[in-house]
Amino acid sequence: MSEMRIALVAEGVTDHVVIEAALKAILPQPFVLTQLQPEPNLPKMGQGWGGVLRWCRDAGTRHTGSLDADPTLSLFDMLILHVDADVTECHYDVHGEAIASQATPLGWKSLPCSKPCPPPRDNCDELAVAVATWLGQAQLGPKSVLCIPSKSSGTWLACAVLPQDHALLNSPECNLALESTLERLPLKPPPGRIKKSRREYLVHQQSLTDSWSRVTGMCSQAMAFEKQVRDFLQTTAEMPMAQAAQGATL
Q1: Beta sheet of 78-82, edge-to-edge order
Q2: How far apart are CA 236 and CA 223, in angstroms?
Q3: What is the pLDDT of residues 75-87, one digit of tens each?
Q4: What was the pLDDT predicted at 245?
Q5: How far, rounded to the nearest angstrom, does the alpha carbon of residue 159 sit from its chain's CA centroid?
């Protein structure tokens, strides 16, 4: 079975670790996950959701229509575009006046745009609309998967590794401080304090993969991400049959 080639546009390197762990639990085949944003060797877009915004803006500048047809993405079977739901609480000017001044002329959705939580989906839907405006003339296509953890990808990690009765897991998708609180936990008992770094997240990556069903049971947005990936797999599986049927009628 050939490896699936997946491109990732994400806020940061810890998000890469979390999403890779989720994909290992969801996908039935091997894959290669290539991080397009933040750029590993030339981080011109910057880190965080501002980097995702800049990537989307540039994608809409260079390409019109479905991102599936963007020549710069032609080598990939899937594109995952990640942004955390806590962005609905933010302002554009946190990434500088240059970004804030573009919001109105380019038609970006106004921020902040947060909704009451629960339910977490309302904020995620608002952010999905914002991402669509950041893309401008470009659009998510059938090969594009939008990943919006609530309130952050650290929520998924916490749900995988913390004891089920831990106080942080009380309505975890609506806890804006959950990810930062992981960094302030006592060192013991295990898993203890988890700093937001690629090295520390990698320590727990396999646990996240192994406990993915637990995560989806606690986090509706993890389930939504899994559904999008499985829908993609179903669509790609049906393509050869549809093409074969079309060929038979010619």
Answers
A1: 31-37, 4-9, 78-82, 144-147
A2: 20
A3: 999 999 999 999 9
A4: 42
A5: 17
Is 92 in contact with 99 (CB distance < 8 Å)? yes
φ, ψ for residue 160, nearest 5 deg: -85, -35
- Give me the number of domains the chain comprises: 1
3-class DSSP state for residue 108?
coil
Between the alpha carbon of residue 127 and those of residues 108, 148, 208, 224, 227, the distances in Å are: 11, 8, 25, 14, 18
The length of the chain in residues reads: 250
Amino acid letter, residue 6:
I
Judge whether 51 and 9 are in contact, CB under 8 Å: no
Supply the DSSP symbol for 75. T
State residue 42's pLDDT score: 59
Domain residues for 64?
A: 4-249
Identify the bridge partners of residue 7 per DSSP, sorted by sequence position: 34, 79
pLDDT tens for 122-172 read: 999 999 999 999 999 999 999 999 999 999 999 999 999 999 999 999 999
pTM of this prediction exceeds 0.90: yes
Instruction: Count other Cβ atoms within 10 Å, centred on residue 28.
Output: 8
CA atoms within 13 A on the CB side of 88: 24
**DSSP per residue, 180-229:** HHHTTS-S-STT----SSHHHHHHTHHHHHHTHHHHHHH-HHHHHHHHHH
> Which residues, at least 6 apart from 101, have a Cβ–Cβ distance to it below 8 Å?
none
